[in-house]
Design brief:
The structure is a homotetramer. Chain A is an alpha/beta fold. Chain A has two domains: about 5-130, Rossmann fold (3-Layer(aba) Sandwich); about 145-315, 2-Layer Sandwich (Dihydrodipicolinate Reductase, domain 2). Chain A is about 35% helix and about 20% strand. Chain A is built from twelve helices and 14 strands. In chain A, the strands form two sheets. A nine-stranded mixed β-sheet of chain A has the order 13-12-11-10-6-9-8-7-14. A five-stranded parallel β-sheet of chain A has the order 2-1-3-4-5, sandwiched between helices. The longest helix of chain A is centred in the last third of the chain and has 20 residues, at about 325-340. Chains in contact: A-B, A-C, A-D, B-C, B-D, C-D.
């Protein structure tokens, strides 16, 4: 029996959405336990949050700097192994740098940093410290996304020609931030969210999903960024044409003003021999079309899916696995890597199928290009490499 | 009892797809009868086709010029009232001009002409001759498309912000024209189809549908036109960003290489108060989302749809009405206008809810702009007015 | 060029639903023309209906008896070939007997007769007169129903184990007949509809569809017939357990009080090697599941369907074919048989794939058994053969 | 901060399906921890399973009798609070009786006991010992099932007329038990599963779901139980007509030979004013139809659902919640009751919205009636009360 991995958390105090998700996801498989945290910029709130989670007072920290310092002093068999960073975007970079500096591994929410420059520095830091770094691009954790990726890798679809990836939401169709709603306030605030709202928050998942499934790389893009709700300083809608390195073309759009859309990330990939379609809101089905036979629907946990999908499944077919299970797959794969690392194995993160600091860098380069293109008169803007 | 309207046909001989559709659609409601035709550029094929359709030999013409001449000589109570032009694109313009010149009304398949210049001339000719001119942008004939348009007109969705319209097909994913398949041969041939294949054939329906439903006008666009199948002189895929006159933004894409897609025209329109979604392959459902209540599904022929939809329906709810019924609605509305015209009423075509020569002109301007944008370095290209 | 077949009509006057359907369906393919009719029990209404349909006054008859007599006197090259009987149930039998007696072929709406005894007599009459008799169990006209039947015939599903067939409607959820609505009045009236309302009107389609697709025969059944709306003399809901001759089991239910259901006929068939599912409201998809591979969706008019489906299709894939097209397939197949018959060929009706008088007899036996079972204390009641 | 509740487990050793589900579900919200277990009838396997789950050796018991004895001796602040019984059906009753006898609360998988007599005794035992007893009829834990129940309770659907509830699976379409597959072996074995396989395993969920949503009680039924796979001693398919106490009628069917069906539990409820439809495989949508307005789709976690659904949700709309989350809701509601109980509050279990021993008794009465009816010649068999 392997021991449980010990997780510290930065951010995710009472009232936060994504912190609770990280806790449920990380603990689902019984391989990770939360042992400490600095849950808020307010030391009082941080401690109160920690206590309400059942942590001992001694491991509810007022600041993450304190947490790094104190945890590093604890005996090896007790101190945290890694830190989950679940703050608003602004704090990702400093918290991640501090964590790495203190000698801990990192799980970080996305987008990875506040800007492209920070992302580049973070990549270097990870390389220097040789710690593991997992970015929770959680939608790649779904079994049917794994199946899609494997189909492309196996050549089943042939050369990829076209990708259409969408992420419509409707929750910001009105000026919700004016009501003080916490999520809306920080995501529409350039000081907390960065240079982009809609594309940064959700468009980034589109780009990541497209590259993850196809293995292609976005080369250049043509973006139209729009703010529909008056008084909002960042865009709440983006339409983007894509060109991929192999000559494939794409359409990517995301919106926060698409009334009625909940969290409707979806992707279609068209190749020379077949095509696929996947929807996050019905994640256990993968639609396949073929040149030479009728449409096929592959389903999570049936005997008809490949090894990658099967390895990221917990339940028999027909027992819906959802958002938390997909998120937990990111943690489970990271836990496998970290367990191996702690046993002294040489770990190549890309072998464990979780998003790394390099995916984070690409994400920031995508946001940078989208923002630049939104302001450009020329049709095409190249993504920085 | 009103008499049946008498239809002549140009094109649509044996083996043609769209000619048979026009015949079934025009005759569905018992108000139009086919009385003559020039069905092929080959006089022999034309006559054989006419005979096989049960026409008397005397009204199976070798050429449409002959048909115009001979029909004009027949007594009023016998000669054709209007001509349905169902040839490949190239011949639309000369046949339409000849028909108008000979004093007959016109129903014409789309795209209306071979290029923008012809379209402008045809508009003038219609205005000069004061004949009726119906363009069979058939997808606007569906009851739920009418419902969508009425919802926008009634302000139910509020100001329109975003439109996403798609038309994926997969039938040209391989070099089908190399096999001699008739439809593929002419549509991919610049001499017969014009400057565009995919956008001309199906992207044009997207633009028309978006403008029809929303009442907005495309102002400028940014297009990426791609030929994926080697050796094909025209594009088989197009991705286009749209800007509408009211500030709305849009995404339009069409493809003929989207394997598995049959005829998957669909549209989503997002407004300030609600949004709609419609799919041509399941045409009797209209999906509505609202700021303040749960998703609604309106269905053809139920008591819950408006007058426009109800007026374009033949069957009780749950008895699926399809492509032919929608196509027949175009003819039925045109027949109503022509009947009124023949009775001496002053007819404003826009009151009868069928596409006119002006819609045809806009369609050609859209194709012109798309082709120009596809070659441009600047992001935005304006549509000619 | 073969001549058009000449159709007379009994019933279907102004305001009737099914008469208009028969006219549109019969004329869709240009092989049948309406030449005369006795459209109402009221001679005035009959004549007015005929005139409004564009018939000459001389062939608008006051009664069907008159029509039979007068048409029989017309010259062969002019008189009607067959009669479409589209009255309420009560009149099917006498009109059909009179038609056969007068020497004409018959197309009859369902249920075929008012009771089982009439059905048996009608079978004999057809056999004696050697006329063609087509019963418009129209739902078997859909291409994907043909595909399903062919799959079973070809053994693709293996031995059939279980059939679930449903027909929910909601239009009689309130006492609509109290408002005078014509359809509701006669269907809920035992004098016009017979011993059953819901099972007779729509449950009969379930039984027919199940037997058509599987080739099996219902042997015995256990029925629960319920009247939910107070004051209604016939049942508006029925739940039935089925046993088929080969040992297969089934569930059949129909309802007219299922609020929100339009015309939701659907069937699932489970075999030893695979299973199928089909829904009348989305008729162009057939869902297939297999023991050894993932779910498959076959679609009308794609290259992936068999000969029977292909032969009953008019349009390319993705151009939805609906209720009228399926109904027209019944007429088209009947027209093929009648054309052959008139040319002197020996016609075996079962070779032409349309429902015959024998299907009508089975339908009446099913209704008879359902009504008997509804009153029985014993679980199982046998169907008369 | 309340302390975590301490759970012991009986059954659920390595290779078992449902034990792992109980562990993930119980721990999802951080309110319950697994502290001990007797995981297998084999002491060696039990201990190995416990160790692999990270339990200390001292709390991995060889038998559940030992666990009851030893845990009862531990100090109050350490010993288990309740026992989750996740064995095959046969052992539910003795384990539950022993647990109650030893003074612990119970969570028990379903069906509750091996037969109706045991169920009655268990009800008495619970009443005598005054312990809490939760039966994991997990499908009632879904938010949209709660919404459906609330709609009925609020009278939104009016008086309920008809219920159709189905549970098709395909996993036993072949003789899987012949391969030694563990789940198949015990479920098809009368000695381990009891007098029924299909209806006991999954039909029981149908009955429970129908009664839970509607608040009605099944009064009598007519069942057809069939074994399709040769050599199988218990039925693998069941079709049942239902009569409810208020006069409502129903159809219930379950199957294990429905090829392609994974775990397709679904229900439709038709009332006088509206109707609902829900599918377990797409659990976050509830379809509503109304007499007086268009179809509505309510979705988990949107603002448009009621308090009961909202209280059983963890994530924002569009973040799919699945089987584990629904299962966890049962545990969460039980944990709330147990926490109150331990604080000395008077707990009425029915106020906490989890299934109790009384639901278990009704389940066994349903199985008893179904088995009796399957053998009966009379149509209707009454459910024991």
């Amino acid at each position: 029996m392997q021991r449980k991995l010990r997780m510290g958390m930065v951010g995710g105090g009472q009232g936060a959405f994504i912190g609770a998700v990280h806790r449920m996801a990380s603990q689902m498989d019984g391989r990770i336990e939360l042992v400490c945290g600095a849950f808020s910029r307010s030391p009082e709130k941080s401690i109160a949050s920690g206590l309400s989670l059942g942590l001992p007072r001694s491991r509810c920290y007022g600041t993450y700097e304190e947490m790094m310092r104190e945890e590093a002093r604890r005996p090896m068999e007790e101190r945290m192994d890694f830190v989950a960073i679940v703050t608003p975007n602004r704090a990702h970079y400093p918290a991640a740098m501090a964590t790495l500096q203190a000698g801990f591994h990192v799980v970080c929410d996305k987008p990875m940093t506040f800007n492209l420059d920070e992302a580049r520095k973070l990549v270097k830091k990870v390389q220097q410290t040789r710690k593991l770094f997992c970015l929770t691009h959680n939608y790649t954790g779904y079994p049917m996304v794994k199946e899609a990726r494997q189909l492309v890798q196996d050549g089943a679809l042939g050369r990829i020609r076209k990708i259409v990836v969408e992420y419509p939401q409707g929750w910001l169709a009105t000026r919700l931030e004016g009501t003080g709603q916490k999520q809306a306030v920080w995501r529409t605030d350039p000081k907390q969210a960065g240079a982009t709202c809609c594309i940064g928050d959700i468009g980034s998942h589109c780009a990541n999903l497209a590259e993850y499934i196809t293995g292609l790389r976005i080369a250049e893009l043509a973006a139209e960024m729009t703010t529909f709700v008056k008084g909002r300083p960042l865009e709440d809608d983006g339409n983007i044409l894509l060109r991929f390195t192999n000559g494939a073309k794409g359409v990517l759009w995301a919106s926060q003003i698409a009334i009625g859309r909940e969290n409707d990330l979806n992707i279609r990939v068209f190749g020379e021999k077949g095509s696929i379609e996947w929807h996050q809101q019905e994640p256990n089905s993968l639609i396949l079309d073929w040149l030479d036979r009728a449409r096929e629907i592959r389903r999570t946990s049936t005997p008809f899916v490949g090894a990658a999908a099967a390895a990221n499944t917990r339940l028999p077919a027909g027992h819906p696995e959802g958002y938390l299970e997909a998120f937990a797959n990111i943690y489970r794969n990271f836990a496998a890597a970290l367990t191996d690392f702690l046993r002294g194995k040489k770990v190549r993160e890309e072998d464990y199928d979780y998003p790394t600091v390099h995916d984070g860098l690409r994400g920031m380069a995508f946001l940078d290009a989208a923002v630049r293109s939104g302001r450009a008169k020329a049709k095409w803007v190249k993504m920085a490499s």
